[in-house]
Amino acid sequence: MGFTEKPDAATARAYLATGDYRWNAGMFLVRTSVLLGHLQRLRPALHDGLVRIAAAWGTPERDAVLEDTWPGLEKIAIDHAVAEPVAAEGDVAVVPGTFGWDDVGDFNSLAALLPSLDGTGTKILGDEANVVRVESAGSVLVPAAGRPIAVLGLDDVVVVDTPDAILVTTRARAQQVKDVVQELHERGLDDLL
Questions:
Q1: For residue 86, what are the CA distances in angstroms to 3, 35, 55, 74, 113?
Q2: In which domain, by residue range, is 71 found?
């Protein structure tokens, strides 16, 4: 058994055409001890850092340990860190399911799960009282900083206002938020977030 995360379109078509492959929803059911054991074996530094953070979580030292440890942890998806190598070792089972599932990986995906505001297609995650819209529809607005968000004459935008930063993009480009994070990192601005 193998595990391939986000194959390109041609590879995915070839996989599906054989009938021998399954689409993985990325849902893993595993005992914590088993997952941590694999992580300790495959990514020991990541394991040790996460265990250190978990041990400090309910203590007064939590923030200091988190601030000291989190930035140095390897940034890697569980798919690459554990699932792929463990699947290559034959230690992963696939269980078919017929349940609903949404991959909420960006704000555009999130919009599909939120109720529409007064029939305009606009979705608000947070206090509607902090949002002013004039001639705009189909947007995803997140007023998380507690101050008003005003959108004038723009359709299908994403505005996320947090105490640390403001993100403005189109719903079509919501998956590219990681590009902004990378740019902030390259400019040394991610320390401000």
A1: 9, 10, 26, 18, 33
A2: 9-88
Examine the fold and report which residue of 23, 54, 88 is the final residue of a domain before the chain moves on: 88
Other CB atoms within a 10 A radius of the CB of residue 118 amount to 9
User: Number of folded domains in the chain?
Assistant: 2
In a domain, 173, yes or no: yes
Walk along the chain (193 residues) and give the pLDDT tens digit of each residue.
Answer: 566 767 888 998 898 899 888 776 677 889 999 999 999 999 999 999 999 999 999 999 999 999 999 999 999 988 889 988 998 898 888 887 787 777 777 888 888 888 887 788 899 998 999 999 999 999 999 999 999 999 999 999 999 999 888 999 999 998 888 898 889 889 888 766 5
